[in-house]
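Quarterly update from the structural biology core.
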Amino acid sequence: MATATLDFERPLVELEKQLEELRRMAGDRQLNVADEMATLERKLSVMRDEIYRNLTPLQRVQVARSLRRPMTDDYLRLCFSDFIELHGDRLYREDAAIMGGWARLDGETVMIIGHQRGRDTKENLLRNFGMPHPEGYRKALRLMRLAEKFQVPVLTFIDTPGAWAGLGAEERGQSEAIARNLIEMSALEVPIIATIIGEGGSGGALALGVADRVNMLENSVYSVITVEGCAAILWKDGKSPEMRDRAATALKITAPDLYELRVIDEIIPEPRGGAHADHATTAKNLQDTLMRQIDDLRRFKPDKLVRRRREKFLRMGQFAE
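Predicted structure, tokenized:
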């Protein structure tokens, strides 16, 4: 689990503390420290740019997992209006690890479905750390069918370590629920836009990821397995930073890597210092991208939309010698 301050951000935190101390001194002692503050602010800006311009894959994993990073409920508040949450899969129970419902994007009705993590222990227990049970995916599918009935675009937000792998989830058909979503999403006759906003892990992420447009925020990750799991399987060491870094690099899980491999369609830029540094700017970038993509996808008739979506995923992994 990510800590409040990431390891590589500690120099930034130290400078921010110095700035805060200068502000306090200026207020308490009526001192003029404008020049000193300006120097520190310039240094902070340069250092932040340098750090985030040269993040390693493992550091991007840390950023993607940050608890300060905006989550689905944050984007609902910042990008959309008139959100009405819908609950339950009509088969077993409500799963709080996935939230969804009707909302408006710049006046247009859309269906929002997204993973939701917790920010503290109590919320993590409620949300199951963002790892859905089968009923969560069945709820998501119910909402997708509802959107198709009313010819409304589906927007999914992906942020999960993976689907819950507990005994109860397996007994209730976790693999079938995920596979069913893949089949149904491939044939849904409305525009689907998926955005990885944090950590996109394994089939738990893919169950919301079969879309006409797949976006990634700049510092999000998307992979078939966690870096810890990969390192444990391949090198019998899932804990050491060296092996986790090796796994993160080998997996090609960052947005630039996946864009080059044509697994995703667009990278949404984040502000300096990552999405967690400026929620509002990140949300505005996401909102602009979604509105543009919806307008683009509206041009296609349902049958062509489905055909293009299937062809898009069938092309993945093809190569020529």
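The beta strands are 81-86, 98-105, 108-115, 154-160, 192-201, 213-217, 221-223, 266-268.
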